[in-house]
């Protein structure tokens, strides 16, 4: 975790107003001076650790500092003689990482591990020694953030190191907290590195570490990392943004006036609230500029209102909306529905007397600590309750977020480092998370909640719910309605997945619909599997199979429609009557006719599109009526469309159901599956038209069939 020295220009510099805690630069300088003097204790505490201890005691007044002193002495003696590229003693790095975590309120065990986080990697200290002197829990954290050797892993060392850290984070999220603080100090001191190495480290920080900080809710680290990455990867835009912020430094601040008015308003209403002006960090300012095209003084920050209780948040909201003009579209309630990363707050926007719009965040002091520090603010959720020693293996964490569960699941089935690294970046690039509720066919309750990235489809939900068994998914119902597997899900959707034991498995089109690495990897493995004898190879991903017809018999087109003498009678003396093959009318359909060449009247269903076309051409209809409806007769011909989920043996099951109703198949056409949906078109001969409704009911009862309708147009090949 060797990071290297000078700062490329601190993006948190002048012109910034911060409401939250900031790492103390003076404290870091004091640590550096003390480290140069060695570990000489004063009142039992090394001088270099004095500032860390003071900050730590502010959050944890009863903290036992003896273990921190012991960890510092081991770290200092182990790193003695090692220098950073800036020329500073190496011990200043673990001290700075520990101070960052202490500022965010981390508990003593995490601080102990952060002091030791580079000892096993860069010195002669072993994990066994750490376990013996500091216990299994500190050892677990140190091991979790220790890099794998390039000598052993070569080019795969970096992705495999991150895999190792993520697996360790699955059992204890403090592992990633230490890694994030370590990367923040490395980014602060990146200036002495070669430009190409700066860019590589900044790119990994942008693609992996910043999204992880967002998911763990550690906004204080995330925002500073974003600014530092911005300065390295986009130096020109960074400089322009910094100059723009500085240009407003001497101007009147419209947010200050609104804040003062809000303080007086809330005081008069008897609401105990703290109203602060909270500056945006540079990346946030840059995003606002890109979105709006211009900036005002009010766009450089937001108002932060801190209160004591949840109910006070809504009281503040009511007062602000009563006495200011609210921007209704900007209201969001993340207290009633917290974000997936623990974040809670009310968001709104109000208009000042000069027309300026101020964004407002309303939260309790506890919500603010969690918003800034995320999982770090939770303390130690892994502390044993019965006094037993912490286990060395994987520990069950009931607070582990759903996104981490998903990530850990798919990484287990991804041994290839390159595939893992690419999939990890893709997974972390997805912003936001939704929760859908997966129900059983007969479930009346809310269903099993499944966390998915925003934009996920039914395919992703199937693999998140069933793993490899999702290969057997043939369809879905979303909020009670049939939907294709490519349907994009939204937060709160109720989902019922339709499964089949003998499904043909996923098609290449599923890859186009899947967003989660777990789904994409499982589908890719299925498509790449060895094909059995006679089994067709899977089509390349992203290519749609051509539509084709599989005729069982020669189809009956309009020119081959059977004579209908005795079935229908036209109001045109001497005319020959025949039923149109495009809509195959049967009694008691409402019908009409049109005279064609040769003195023949073609009979169509009244709703057939051909009727509208001929009427538009000025063709005059001929009246037609049925003869002997309900009394039997020589037989009738009808075309039915059966829409179903694709599965093996669907065709024989449907033809068996048709035969059981006494109908004969004149022709059949089967289209290949598209998104697991398939359409069968049957032209059938019925002995009696009265049996049509029961025939259609019987076909709908075939497993997988969700609709049977009368054909309106000729089936095209």
Task: List descriptors.
alpha+beta, six-stranded mixed sheet, single chain, elongated, 717 residues, disordered C terminus, five-stranded mixed sheet
What this model shows, in words?
The radius of gyration is 35 Å and the shape is elongated. Helix 1 runs antiparallel to helix 4, helix 5 packs across helix 8 and helix 21 crosses helix 23. The chain is an alpha+beta fold and 717 residues long.
| Total beta-strand segments | 23
Main β-sheet, in a few words?
6 strands, mixed
Our estimate of the beta-strand percent is 15-25%
Regarding quaternary structure, what we see is single chain
How much is the radius of gyration in Å? 35 Å
Kindly name the structural category.
alpha+beta
Query: Roughly how much helix do the residues carry, as a percent range?
Result: 40-55%
| CA distance, first residue to last residue | 65 Å
Mean pLDDT: 79
Label the overall shape: elongated
- Alpha plus pi helix count: 26
> pLDDT under 50 segments (min length 5)?
3-26, 36-42, 385-399, 532-566, 629-633, 713-717
Q: In summary, what is this structure?
A:
Helices cover 40% and strands 17% of the residues. The protein is built from 26 helices and 23 strands. α11 (174-188) packs parallel to α13 (219-233) and α14 crosses α16.
């Amino acid at each position: 975790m060797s990071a290297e020295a000078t700062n490329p220009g601190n993006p948190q510099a002048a012109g910034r107003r911060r409401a939250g805690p900031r790492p103390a630069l003076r404290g870091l300088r004091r640590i550096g001076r003390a480290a140069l003097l060695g570990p000489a204790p004063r009142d039992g505490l090394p001088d270099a650790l004095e500032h860390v201890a003071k900050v730590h005691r502010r959050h944890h007044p009863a903290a036992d500092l003896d273990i921190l002193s012991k960890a510092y002495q081991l770290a200092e003696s182990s790193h003695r003689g090692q220098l950073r590229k800036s020329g500073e003693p190496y011990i200043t790095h673990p001290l700075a990482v520990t101070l960052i975590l202490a500022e965010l309120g981390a508990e003593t065990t995490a601080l102990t591990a952060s002091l030791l986080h580079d000892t096993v990697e860069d010195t002669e200290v072993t994990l066994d020694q750490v376990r013996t002197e500091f216990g299994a829990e500190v050892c677990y954290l140190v091991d979790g953030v220790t890099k794998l050797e390039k000598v052993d892993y070569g080019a795969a060392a970096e992705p495999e190191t991150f895999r190792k850290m993520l697996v360790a984070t699955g059992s204890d999220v403090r592992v990633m907290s230490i890694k994030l603080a370590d990367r923040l100090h490395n980014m602060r001191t990146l200036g002495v590195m070669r430009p190409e190495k700066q860019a590589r480290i900044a790119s990994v920080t942008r693609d992996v570490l910043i999204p992880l900080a967002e998911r763990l809710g550690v906004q204080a680290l995330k925002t500073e990392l974003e600014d530092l990455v911005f300065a390295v990867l986009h130096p020109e835009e960074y400089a322009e943004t910094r100059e723009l912020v500085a240009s407003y430094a001497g101007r009147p601040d419209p947010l200050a006036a609104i804040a003062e008015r809000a303080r007086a308003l809330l005081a008069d209403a008897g609401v105990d609230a703290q109203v602060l002006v909270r500056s945006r960090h540079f990346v946030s300012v840059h995003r606002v500029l890109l979105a709006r095209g211009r900036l005002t003084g009010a766009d450089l920050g937001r108002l932060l209102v801190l209160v004591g209780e949840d109910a006070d948040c809504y009281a503040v909201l009511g007062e602000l909306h009563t006495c200011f003009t609210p921007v209704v579209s900007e209201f969001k309630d993340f207290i009633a529905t917290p974000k997936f990363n623990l974040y809670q707050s009310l968001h709104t926007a109000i208009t000042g007397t000069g027309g300026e719009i101020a964004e407002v965040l309303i939260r309790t002091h506890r919500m603010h600590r969690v918003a800034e520090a995320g999982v770090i603010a939770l303390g130690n959720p892994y502390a044993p309750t019965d006094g037993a020693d912490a286990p060395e293996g994987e520990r069950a964490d009931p607070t582990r977020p759903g996104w981490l569960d998903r990530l850990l699941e798919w990484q287990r089935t991804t041994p290839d480092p390159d595939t893992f690294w690419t999939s990890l970046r893709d997974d972390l690039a997805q912003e936001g998370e939704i929760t859908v509720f997966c129900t059983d066919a007969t479930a009346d309750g809310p269903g099993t909640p499944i966390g998915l990235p925003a934009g996920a489809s039914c395919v992703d939900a199937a693999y998140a719910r069933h793993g490899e068994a999702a290969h057997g998914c043939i369809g879905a119902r979303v909020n009670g309605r049939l939907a294709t597997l490519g349907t994009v899900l939204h937060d709160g959707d109720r989902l019922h997945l339709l499964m089949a034991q003998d499904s043909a498995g996923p098609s290449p089109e599923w890859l186009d619909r899947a967003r989660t690495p777990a789904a994409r990897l499982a589908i890719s493995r299925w498509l790449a599997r060895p094909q059995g004898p006679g089994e067709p190879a899977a089509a390349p991903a992203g290519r749609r199979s051509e539509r084709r017809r599989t005729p069982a018999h020669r189809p009956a087109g309009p020119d081959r429609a059977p004579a209908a003498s005795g079935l229908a009678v036209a109001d045109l003396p001497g005319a020959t009557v025949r039923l149109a093959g495009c809509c195959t009318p049967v009694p008691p359909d409402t019908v009409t006719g049109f005279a064609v060449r040769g003195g023949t009247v073609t009979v169509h269903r009244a709703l057939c599109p051909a009727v509208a076309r001929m009427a538009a051409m000025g063709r005059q209809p001929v009246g037609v009526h049925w003869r002997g409806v309900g009394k039997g007769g020589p037989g009738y011909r009808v075309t039915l469309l059966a829409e179903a989920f694709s599965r093996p043996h669907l065709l024989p099951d449907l033809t068996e159901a048709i035969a059981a109703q006494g109908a004969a198949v004149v022709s059949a056409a089967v289209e290949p599956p598209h998104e697991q949906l398939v359409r069968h078109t049957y032209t059938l001969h019925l002995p009696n038209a009265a049996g049509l409704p029961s025939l259609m009911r019987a076909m709908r009862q075939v497993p997988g069939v969700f609709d049977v309708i009368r054909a309106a147009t000729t089936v095209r090949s």
